[in-house]
Amino acid sequence: GVREANVIDIDGPSGKQLVAYLVRTDAAQDSDALRETLKTHLKAHVPDYMVPTYFVFIDVMPLTANGKLDRRALPKPDVARSQQGHVAPRTEFEQRLAALWEQVLQVERVGLNDNFFALGGHSLLAVSLAGRIRETFDVSIKLHDFLLMQTLGELADFMRTNEAKVKSAGIVMNANRSDNAPLFCLPPGGGGTYSYYPLAGQLSDSRPVYGLVNKAYVVPGWFDTSWQEMVDYYVKQIRMTQSHGPYNLLGWSMGGALAIEVAHVLEREGDTVSFLGLVDTQLPASVGMEWVEEAPEVTTQKQGENYYRSLIKSLQAFVPGLQEASIVGLIETARQSLSSEGEVIDWVVDHVALEAGMNADNLRSIFQDIAVQDEIETG
To answer: Does the keyword Ligase apply (predicted)?
Structure first.
């Protein structure tokens, strides 16, 4: 047992850490076994951030001349002790995960057998680490899962073997948890799915409803490099929740164009789409209900106006604080000296990217994607 104990806080690499200094009732007692017994008891009765990071056994408590605890005479905890039997990360995946641990815990190295909490981690730091894992690997780790997989190796194995379970498959939009085939709602132009909540509420007694948001909502700084990449991402998200058809899909505005493309992919892969709902979506000419002998010719001026609208939409969506009037002004300035719409658009994109400190090629790719989406919607 313990005859005397003092707990103090020290400045650790990841912030304040608690150290318990203990004097055993029997000096011959196994300190490792007693340490684990004390940890287990404390974890059952206090929050994890109140459990000392280190348990240091000493023969006697050092005291000052006034009879108070002499903190300066206390031995420093042996940090290296918690990393005995170091096993270096083997794969690139493990090395990237270890780097995140090192950043959060502010330690020089982390091995596969190292325990997050033994290195000074606690639930608040675990939340921080989970956020970095989400940004780096596009994987969502619940705190409960993290508490069960406390070593780097355990967490790496869990992330690899349970990838489909850990990744977010979309936003659950109602309380229905039945086995009925869910309805998947594809996002309109803004990338969010808030507009589907009223419908999801109406379907609470019928079936689950999932809202699929643009990947940029999940991975900060993400840019879709192509329309097909966006479609494939939504297909993957849908299959994480429902591995096989028949599928129910719904899309409003641009979400309808996405729903059509997602349906095509699912059916090409051998699955069935039993419901495809389009709300206020302009159908592409290729799926129109009437045979069109010859589509009316679109004037060059009209095409240019459409491109400029797409340019304004894309720049406002991805450049914070940029006003439509500013973009229109740049377009008009460029048109005074440049002859083609392509040159005007390139000049405007380069100018905005330079002012915003962004990559012009990324902005140009976003514009091209949105221009294609707008063309699909307008037929």
So the answer is: no
Q: Nearest-5° angle of CA 228, CA 229, CA 233?
A: 115
Q: Which residues contact 302 (CB under 8 A, 6 or more apart)?
A: none
- Please say if the pLDDT value at position 105 is more than 50: yes
Please tell me the pTM assigned to this model: 0.39
For the domain 92-166, what is the CATH code? 1.10.1200.10
State the Cα torsion 327-331-332-336 to the nearest 10°.
150
Domain 171-281: homologous superfamily in CATH: Alpha/Beta hydrolase fold, catalytic domain (3.40.50.1820)
More confident residue, 1 or 70: 70
92-166 and 171-281: identical CATH topology: no
pLDDT of 339 > 90? The answer is: no
Token pair 């083609």: residue: 340
The Cα–Cα gap between 332 and 344 comes to 9
| Long-range Cβ contacts of 226-229 (<8 Å, 24+ apart) | 226/365, 226/369, 227/261, 227/369, 227/372, 227/373
2-77 homologous superfamily: ANL, C-terminal domain (3.30.300.30)
d(CA 368, CA 358): 16
Taking 80 as the threshold, does the pLDDT of residue 317 lie above it?
no
Q: Which two tokens stand for residue 78?
A: 């042996």
- The Cβ of residue 172 has, within 10 Å, a number of other Cβ atoms equal to 16
DSSP H helix total and E strand total for the chain = 14, 8
pLDDT band at 107 (very low <50, low <70, confident <90, very high): confident
The residue among 200, 153, 196 whose CA lies nearest residue 174 is 200
**Residue 204 neighbours by CB distance under 10 Å:** 13
Mean pLDDT rounded to a whole number for the chain = 78
Look-up of token digits 């850990």: 166
Q: What is the C-alpha end-to-end distance of the chain, expressed in Å?
A: 79
Whether a cis peptide bond, with omega within 30° of 0, leads into 220 is no
pLDDT digits (tens, 9 = 90+) for 242-299: 888 899 999 988 888 899 999 999 999 999 999 999 988 766 555 544 444 444 443 3
Residue ranges covered by each domain of the chain: 2-77, 92-166, 171-281, 300-378
Q: Return the pLDDT at 48.
A: 62
Phi, psi at 14, each rounded to 5°: -110, 20
For residue 337, the model assigns a pLDDT of 73
